[in-house]
Amino acid sequence: MEIVPLSGALGAEIHGADIRRAEDLPEIQNAFARHSVIVIRGQDISPDEHLAFARTWGAINVNRFFQALDSHPEIAIVLKEPDQRRATGEDWHTDHAYDLEPAMGSILHAIEVPPYGGDTVYCSMGAAYDALSDRFKELLQGLYAWHSSSHVFGVAAQDSEAMKMGKYRNAESATQNALHPVVISHPLSGRKGLFVNPQFTTQIDGLAKPESDAILGMLYSHCSKPDFQCRVRWQKGDVTMWDNRATWHKAINDYQGHRRYMHRVTVEGCPLQAAQ
Ligand code: SIN
Fold first, then answer.
1. Considering all CA atoms of the chain, what is the largest pairwise distance in Å, rounded to the nearest integer?
2. Is the CB of 275 under 6 A from ligand 1?
């Protein structure tokens, strides 16, 4: 097995592994702990094998908003048809940040990729936090922020293309908000990292909206620096897994007129603790 880093900040691609082989799992797990995003190339797997791999990490967290495979309700469909303008996940976000216990990881399997483009870009929230000044880190210490699903998956978003094309479901249940620390201690590594994102974070608790917008806006522009990023160029059969407690991601929507079809499984997480 060969493990090649994608950038200095995060991400690695893995060649010569088979996610169905138990003996390959320890090395894959080590690579994930080290790089937060792993791209396991060339996996010719069935939906059952995708789920079996996901279960080696923990219980499956079934996404309640994405359309799912009829045969496997635990597998969410991430699809852009040639005539659709918007892609799922094209704004920077962290999957399931709106849940009380955000999913620990997401595992995406490339079934059909466009002839060019359709990459996914990732950002290391630990590297972004490390690069802040000590005084700014002090300012963030002890802050909590609200996260919501309602403006993306709820009734308020009924006019979006995704809703009109039937990509999402259960709009009426997208009502919950979750409060998480702005700076978390990673549940496994203990590394400090930012846990706010442009798509699902709505406001820093206890601040006036303009104050919250100013701090979040500054953090978003800071985190968007290429220095903290890596980019995954998909090939059919790739399985990419990312750590939602350590990263943001964004699907690049630059392949208009082509089809991109992925299967996604999310793995249960835990409540997030504020960094001390
Ligand atoms: C997602 O946001 O989970 C999907 C990312 C992608 O399609 O690249």
1. 53
2. no
Nearest C-alpha to atom 7 of ligand 1 is from which residue?
Answer: 251
Token pair 């994608």 in the structure block, residue: 6
> Which amino acids are annotated catalytic?
93, 95, 249, 264
Residue with CA closest to ligand 1 atom 2: 89
Domains annotated for the chain, with CATH where assigned, are 2-274 (3.60.130.10)
- CA torsion, ordered 130, 102, 14, 75, to nearest 10 deg: -160
pLDDT of residue 158: 74
CB 194 within 8 A of CB 124: no
Residue 136 CA, distance from chain mean position: 25
Pull the structure tokens for residue 135: 């005084």
- Cβ atoms of residues 265 and 60 within 8 Å: yes
Taking the centre of ligand 1 as the mean of its atom positions, its distance from the CA of residue 210, in whole angstroms, is: 30
Tell me: the pLDDT tens digits for 142-165?
999 999 987 777 767 677 776 777
Q: From the alpha carbon of 251, which atom of ligand 1 is closest?
A: 8
Quickly tell me which residue has 């496997």 as its tokens: 72
pTM of the model as a whole = 0.94
CA distance 247 to 223: 10
User: Is the CB of 37 inside a 6 Å radius of any atom of ligand 1?
Assistant: no
Q: What is the enclosing helix (H) or strand (E) of 223?
A: helix 209-223
Portion of the chain with pLDDT greater than 90, in percent: 87
